[in-house]
Design brief:
Layout lengths: L15 H11 L8 H14 L3 E5 L2 H11 L7 E5 L8 H5 L3 E5 L10 H13 L6 E5 L8 H10 L4 E4 L7 E2 L2 E2 L6 E5 L12 E5 L2 H10 L23 H12 L1 H18 L6 E3 L6 E2 L5 E5 L1 H4 L3 H10 L5 E2 L15 E2 L7 H8 E4 L7 H26 L1
Helix pairs in contact: 1-8, 2-8, 3-7, 5-6, 11-13
Bound molecules: pyridoxal-5'-phosphate.
The site of pyridoxal-5'-phosphate (PLP) has 14 residues, from helix 3.
Family: Belongs to the DegT/DnrJ/EryC1 family.
InterPro entries: DegT/StrS_aminotransferase, PyrdxlP-dep_Trfase, PyrdxlP-dep_Trfase_major, PyrdxlP-dep_Trfase_small
Keywords: Aminotransferase, Pyridoxal phosphate, Transferase
Length: 391
């Protein structure tokens, strides 16, 4: 039997990437600036419907720049989704800010407007309103931005959308990442499209984007002698990598369709297994299913997510638990947290029961068969054992 490694979300390249990279070589634009960077910014802004975009070395750098643009500094509070990857939070700490974590809801797995409202009410009472809110669109599903924007507008707090996992997603017909003051995308190797490493900051505020571009280029003043009046960063994207990005961007719609097809097949395969529930798709949007995620109820199935992950690992299949919530990370556990309902944390349950399955757009039919078979066999074995034990 074929036992080659099946990855969670490997890069999936087309043919045009090479042409744009060759262009950089031919014209000797091997620099963190150049025509591929300019074009990639323009093409991405157009694709998502934003007025402008700044290509950066990572999605993390893009979040950092967005926070700087909103003036987040020492002691400033920033509300952030708790169920996410650490990169949503680290830039808050770079600036000496205080993250306050907001739970998700079970319907979308993204920021719970209910928890957000409670966090704002308390912050208002204590005169500690946040300077920004970072909303994460998890696993390619958009958060309910109308509800979230309404709450944030009431308190006049700007929103940053962490759309690192949701490029290609729409919310009420409009691109993920274009519903707040700033949006950020990531082109890390495991994302839906990749430049091997890279990110993008988008906004309709083109003056702010110019400022980010300036900071990201070592805050170099327009003087021939390298004049510096502000603290800067080396955050620009290389012109070579931007070439990969241009080729990848042309394929985005195909990649989204492929990931959705992967999800649909898993969903059909597990439809009759009681105790497995796929991550729901909110009816207001179009999710990319960047990763297929599901929960497994150990009581109904007799199988814990850890059992399943162990079997998948043995079969040389890469799978992962759902993100460990930020409020449970040793680095971050002492910061405030607002669960969906007092005493009832949705992200904790999702972490305990959720797993992410191989979801790449290049996953073959046979590879997906292997994953499905492995999961079905494991659950059958465990449930048989469970019925023996109870007999
Ligand atoms: C990948 C990711 C990021 C960070 O992007 P990098 O390009 O790796 O810095 C930020 N937020 C979320 C939710 C991510 O999944």
């Amino acid at each position: 039997m074929n036992n080659s490694r099946i990855y969670l979300s490997p890069p999936h390249l087309g043919t045009r990437e090479r042409e744009y990279v060759d262009l950089a070589f031919r014209t000797n634009w091997i620099a963190p600036l150049g025509p591929n960077v300019d074009q990639f910014e323009r093409e991405l802004a157009e694709k998502v419907g934003a007025k402008g975009a700044v290509a950066l070395s990572s999605g993390t750098a893009a979040i950092h720049m967005a926070l700087k643009l909103l003036g987040v500094g020492r002691g400033d509070r920033v509300f952030v989704s708790s169920l996410t990857f650490i990169a949503s939070v680290n830039p808050v700490l770079y600036e000496g800010g205080v993250p306050v974590f907001i739970d998700c809801d079970a319907e979308t797995w993204t920021m719970s407007p209910q928890a957000l409202e409670r966090a704002f009410e308390e912050a208002h009472r204590n005169k500690q309103l946040p300077r920004a809110v970072i909303v994460v669109h998890l696993y390619g599903q958009n958060a309910d931005m109308d509800a979230i924007n309404e709450i944030c507008a009431k308190y006049r707090v700007p929103v940053i959308e962490d759309a690192a996992e949701s490029l290609g997603t729409t919310y009420k017909g409009k691109s993920s990442g274009t519903h707040g003051k700033f949006g950020i995308y990531s082109f890390n190797g495991n994302k839906i499209i990749t430049t091997s490493g890279g990110g993008m900051l988008v906004s309709d505020d083109t003056a702010a984007l110019s400022k980010a571009r300036f900071w990201a280029t070592q805050a170099r003043e327009p003087q021939p002698h390298y004049e510096h009046a502000e603290l800067g960063y080396n955050y620009r994207l290389s012109n070579v990598l931007a070439g990969i990005g241009r080729g990848q961007l042309e394929l985005l719609d195909d990649r989204v369709a492929a990931r959705r097809a992967v999800f649909d097949r898993y969903k059909r395969a597990f439809a009759d297994i009681e105790g497995i529930n796929m991550m729901p798709e909110a009816e207001y949007g179009y999710a990319t299913r960047w990763l297929t995620t599901m929960t497994i109820d150990p009581i109904t199935t007799g199988c814990t997510p850890a059992d399943l992950l162990e079997r998948l690992t043995e079969a040389n299949i890469e799978a992962r638990p759902v993100w460990k919530p930020m409020h449970r990370q040793p680095l971050l556990q002492y910061y405030p947290y607002f669960p969906h309902e007092p005493g009832s944390s949705v992200s904790d349950t999702l972490f305990e029961q959720g797993i992410c399955l191989p979801s790449g757009s290049s996953l073959t039919w046979d590879e997906q068969d292997r994953v499905i078979t492995c999961i079905k066999q494991t659950i059958q074995m465990k449930s048989r054992r469970m019925s023996h034990e109870s007999a």
